[in-house]
Amino acid sequence: MSLDKLLVDGGPLILGSQIAIGLTIVSILFLVTYLKKWKYLWKEWFTTVDHKKIGIMYILAGVVMFFRGGVDGLLMKAQTARPNMEFLDAQHYDEIFTTHGVIMILFMAMPLLIGIMNVVVPLQIGARDVAFPKLNALSFWLFFAGAMLFNISFVVGGSPDAGWTSYFPLAGKEFTPGVGNNYYAIALQIAGIGTLATGINFIVTILKMRAPGMGLMKMPMFTWTSFITSIIIVAAFPIFTVALAFMTLDRLLGTHFFTVAAGGDPMLWLNLFWLWGHPEVYIVILPAFGMFSEVIATFARKNLYGYKSMVASIVGIAFLSMLVWVHHFYTMGSGPAVNSVFSITTMMIAIPTGVKIFNWLFTMRKGRIKFTNAMLWSLAFVPCFTIGGVTGVMLAMAAADYQYHNTMFLVAHFHYVLIPGVVFAVFAGLYYWWPKMFGFALNEKIGKWHFWLFVIGFNMTFMPMFFVGLKGMSRRMYTYSEGLGWEGLLGFSAVGALVLAAGFAALCYNIYWSFRYASRDVGNDPWDARTLEWATASPAPHYNFAKTPEVSSLDEYWVMKKEGRTNLKKEEITEIHMPSNAWSPFFMCVAFGVVGFFLVFEWFTLAAISAVAIVIGLIANSFDYDEGYHVSVEEVEETERKWRGELK
Ligand code: HEM
Ligand SMILES: [Cu+2]
């Protein structure tokens, strides 16, 4: 690609964004320099290996990406609000639904969930950090490199435009010759390596770092779901890695894995993509289920109903999630026998999911429910998600799917699964764990605005899409003519999207307001909760627990409070061994980002030269003999005194 085509040239909207992005970058650099914050950023954030800070960085990135993906969503809704609109042309519509889908799933849902996992899981199991803190930082920085690379496609080189599923032959060089789909292949590969490492890290953490006495069946439900999610990550992500590697080879070096004429097969992509893609849906939904479980138990003030069946159903869902991928392409000629098998496995998933829904309902039954914001999100989740689930069973019927396939009905279905299932959960989790992360709570009143606007807006936006789908509107249509009976539904849906956006704005305002004005005196356990993360200060000190808790039951902290075992004696405090900060993860972020960028543009010499940096990073890291540092007894004592008062 020649240099003069580097910047996307696409009329006033794109030019405006290019200028805005440029100005934002310059002003951030200026502000950080002016406020002399470089050293602080480097020491406290860029090189940190603290799971809580890494979690917060994931969450911040996820919220920013939600904004980007949401703007994409609004642009699409604006374009289809009226028949024959000329707001976006077909090419731009294609690019926007592609970046919207990829960003929402991989750069919004994943980092928000992994971020909350990072903050909460080590605390819930009474550990000082994850098993491999430096690897954890590397995971974040590789995710970040991938996300940034993917996002610049909008202004540098051009966005991918073959859908978030990137089906071949459309995604091949022959039909999409620009660099857009190279971005897809390479940015997702880089981010995926980070995710895979996260999966390994959390499996080891949860298996090996639990506080003494915490058997597997005494783990909090969010830890259980994070554990199973990590296993699915390790099982499914390598498949995507291979698929993306084939895609990269096809596009960059002219191989023919997915080209029929040369002996390849586009169905290979479909199978590999969905072998990863369907489990991916459960990777994002299971931690969400875990969050609802914690929130509902806390605010119903009861222990979780049917803990064992809850665990069994997560394991069941994880197992079945690997056996259903063909339901994404019933119409592509697998035949009735194959379709029937996948139809049955798909419907079977409704059983463990139904078990969970009933467990949540029974947990609330006769509970003294406190209607906090976190709880409101959990309550709204149940009916909204059930609509997503039931329409899923409709789609699972292979014969019926010939009618629903690739229509707006499907688009409505998966938004009804993903928004209540993932986004509501993240909101519940943020309201719930915010005090633990930052030492102050989000405002409950502004939170109510956020809640009602978002939930009403969500239903207004997506409910009409079921009906417009049944009336024959297929997905990914950039425009339509008058008189099809779609205008009313789509117009209403577009208004709904504005209400939804107002809800998101209320969240942003809430974050801003709370940072400035919320009381800094929340105590360690503002919700009277049940699990160990509430047994330490808010925000949690960098070493998490002055003394590793000893666990004797499920809902350990609740029992500790009842039995009066929450205090700390002075003589129990010992020196604490902690890992040191590391520069190499951030260095790898830059190195992978640069190599990835050159590969996208197929500048192979430059890519090879800069790949040397990756090798240097690996070697330097192998010679890093840092053994960490010790927190002195005095420092621990002082920190603990601050929130506990005098130690006895
Ligand atoms: C926040 C409000 C949202 C709005 C207004 C919105 C709107 C839309 C629209 C209009 C489409 C394309 C329909 C078409 O095919 O023409 C779409 C597709 C899609 N959305 Fe959303 N969406 C939102 C949130 C989300 C979230 C939270 C997720 C995932 C967690 C998500 C995942 C997807 C995916 C995967 C696609 C398919 C893209 C493709 O066809 O390649 N969306 N969305
Ligand atoms: Cu699926």
UniProtKB/TrEMBL annotation:
InterPro entries: Cyt_c_oxase-like_su1_dom (IPR023616), Cyt_c_oxase-like_su1_sf (IPR036927), Cyt_C_Oxase_1 (IPR000883), Cyt_c_Oxase_su1_BS (IPR023615), QoxB (IPR014233). It is found in: Cell membrane. It catalyses: 2 a quinol + O2 = 2 a quinone + 2 H2O; 4 Fe(II)-[cytochrome c] + O2 + 8 H(+)(in) = 4 Fe(III)-[cytochrome c] + 2 H2O + 4 H(+)(out). Gene3D superfamilies: Cytochrome c oxidase-like, subunit I domain. It comes from the Bacteria. Keywords: Cell membrane, Copper, Electron transport, Heme, Hydrogen ion transport, Ion transport, Iron, Membrane, Metal-binding, Oxidoreductase, Respiratory chain, Translocase, Transmembrane, Transmembrane helix, Transport. The chain crosses the membrane at residues 12-35, 56-76, 96-123, 135-156, 183-207, 227-249, 281-299, 311-330, 342-362, 374-400, 412-434, 446-469, 489-512, 586-619. GO terms for cellular component: plasma membrane; respiratory chain complex. Residues 36-552 form the Cytochrome oxidase subunit I profile domain. CDD domains: Ubiquinol_Oxidase_I (cd01662). GO terms for biological process: electron transport coupled proton transport; oxidative phosphorylation; respiratory electron transport chain. Pathway: Energy metabolism; oxidative phosphorylation. Binds a copper B center. Heme A3. SUPFAM superfamilies: Cytochrome c oxidase subunit I-like (SSF81442). Its cofactor is Cu cation; ferriheme a. Its EC number is 1.10.3.-. It is a multi-pass membrane protein. Pfam families: COX1 (PF00115). Belongs to the heme-copper respiratory oxidase family. Catalyzes quinol oxidation with the concomitant reduction of oxygen to water. This is Quinol oxidase subunit 1. The gene is qoxB.
